[in-house]
Amino acid sequence: MTTAPIKYLLLFVIILVNIHVARSQQLRTSAPNSTLLYPKEYGTFENYVFILNGGIIEKQELLNYPEARLGRVFNYTSHIKSLYEGVVNFHTPWYPPSPPDEYANDPAYFINNIQVSPYIVRSSLTEQYTGIKRSERDTLIDGIVYKGSIHIDTEEDFFANRMTICEIVKKYTGLPIKDVIVHWRNDFCNIQNPGLIIQDHFPLYYFDLKGLQEVKVDRIRFAGGERYFIHLVDEGYPSDNFSKNSFRSTLKADMIFDYPMDFDPESPCYEEKFNSAIYDIHHRAKSESKPFGGEEDYMKKLANNMGLQAIKPPVQTTQDSILVQFIVLWKGGLTHLESVSPQKPAHAKILKAIKHFSCVWSGAEVNGTLLLFRRKMVIFYSKDKEGNIRSLDRLEYRYDDHQPVS
């Protein structure tokens, strides 16, 4: 094995940094070329550098290291392919491995009772969550001990347009899944997040096919046999660089599951300790915060959470109301919920329901810039003679001035 001079390793890092700065972060929005999804030929990483334990090796030298394990793979962009297309890292047990999976300590996640990867749960629409149950008990599943579990119930038809890695490999390559390693990434270089190497538990990964841009296959000859390395270039790969119009734009799920055992399952998008004093709070915006599905659907959600009947009961009632206000965070979560009306016992249930559905609100924005937005609204309800709420009737927004922004 030839030890790589430090200057060559530094050159790789400098090239990656320059690519990251120079490359446009805008994702492709055009339909993928079908010829890129069905590879006719398999490569052998012809234009890649192989690095073992920090030193450059020839590809055939990998056969001399039966304990070598695959680490990170860096794919460069097309405008420097005359030099190298990328770098493939390997290590032996005594050498420090690549950084561990960032979600290695996450609990087991389930969406409508189907287990999914921690990466995949973050692509779910929190706006359509109907409930979350969390357990802190260690859970053993398929040989992995998870630190607790989180079960999500949602109205989203999450699996309708998604396929597992097993299904994608079969459809686009026909290769046996037992011989496959998958590199899931997006189509531009990001040195902070170069992609995810997936070597097992393939059924936990569900990909939305409308984001799939390219399927490419390379072969690697290990001492123990040949493996197929499948590059899945996916617009939906989790990244900080989603364009505004991307189908997988910034999601509140990232905010919730950053600390999966800390959020309140009863109000997952509600921030109790947000310091609003250091920020500008907007009362107007070109695009104001609204509930997913519209106000009527939102009112039905609140009523259902409060245990109210869908049809107004045939009893004598009188109308009353509660004026509430809260701050909608940049990604759409809520904070600083309070009632501006005189306190009444029945109002506690309304406030609790608003907190429960804190995920349904969209962020406000002006010219593409997300804002902190104060939403003030009146909820009109009908109550019986004992003061019990029997139905929620309608919702109206209120402003501190008279006219909404044009």
What does this structure look like?
This protein is an alpha+beta fold. It has six helices and 23 strands. Strands 17-19-18-22-23 form a five-stranded mixed beta sheet, covered by helices on one side. It has a four-stranded mixed beta sheet with strand order 2-1-4-3, with no helix packed on it. Strand 20 and strand 21 form a beta hairpin. Helix 5 crosses helix 6.
Write the layout of secondary structure elements.
Layout: H1 6-22, E1 48-52, E2 55-57, E3 69-75, E4 86-91, E5 108-111, E6 114-116, H2 118-121, E7 129-135, E8 139-141, E9 144-146, E10 149-154, E11 162-164, H3 165-172, E12 180-185, E13 196-198, E14 206-208, E15 212-222, E16 225-234, H4 252-257, E17 270-271, H5 295-305, E18 318-328, E19 334-339, H6 347-356, E20 364-366, E21 369-371, E22 373-383, E23 389-398
Parallel strand pairs: 1-4, 5-10, 12-16, 17-19
Antiparallel strand pairs: 1-2, 3-4, 5-6, 7-10, 8-9, 11-14, 12-13, 15-16, 18-19, 18-22, 20-21, 22-23
